[in-house]
Amino acid sequence: MTTLLQVDFDFTGPFGKEMSTMLIGLAESINNEPGLIWKIWTENPKEQLGGGVYLFESEAYAQAYLTMHAARLKEMGVKEIRGNIFEINLPLSTINNAPLDNAARNEVIKDEQ
Amino acid sequence: MTTLLQVDFDFTGPFGKEMSTMLIGLAESINNEPGLIWKIWTENPKEQLGGGVYLFESEAYAQAYLTMHAARLKEMGVKEIRGNIFEINLPLSTINNAPLDNAARNEVIKDEQ
């Protein structure tokens, strides 16, 4: 079942364009993570937060990524990491124009099996 | 600037199909909220959490919605509500196939002005 992972953590920057430039390599590597469909990169300079919202093909993939990512952040000195894994309610999300074409297709395929 | 709002809160259900049926009217009303682009409905029956990830046209719209939504949830008896507002790093999100066509278009228009 397609699964959403939301992560945020204390982060002092860089933010914005400087962050984009510095983390291109990391972003490219994330495309190789098992089961990843997409990631939205989130940042809040005022609150000093970094993070992301990820869509994965399954809860197992989301959980494996969260475990790896939290360990990587801790190695980088990040202390407070919040990670939540959620199922997606597709009928309600579809009403609200959520961009879940891949997720919806997966569910339909599953229902047909 | 397009802004992401992530909300989650303690929730005892209903989840899944029962939630879809019960909250169709609420979902339809959310399409009328000022500045909303989309919402992904999130739920976690194991951890007893409800929530959502929203894309808004601006931080002001996201903040206004969070204030209204938190008050509505408190009236319904929900005690623990977590809401975070984030800017989106578009260059990095684009590398990771994030579904942000609307957001990207807004940024391009803004840069041209």
UniProtKB/TrEMBL annotation, chains A, B:
Gene3D superfamilies: 3.30.70.100. SUPFAM superfamilies: Dimeric alpha+beta barrel (SSF54909). InterPro entries: Dimeric_a/b-barrel, YdhR. This is Putative mono-oxygenase ydhR.
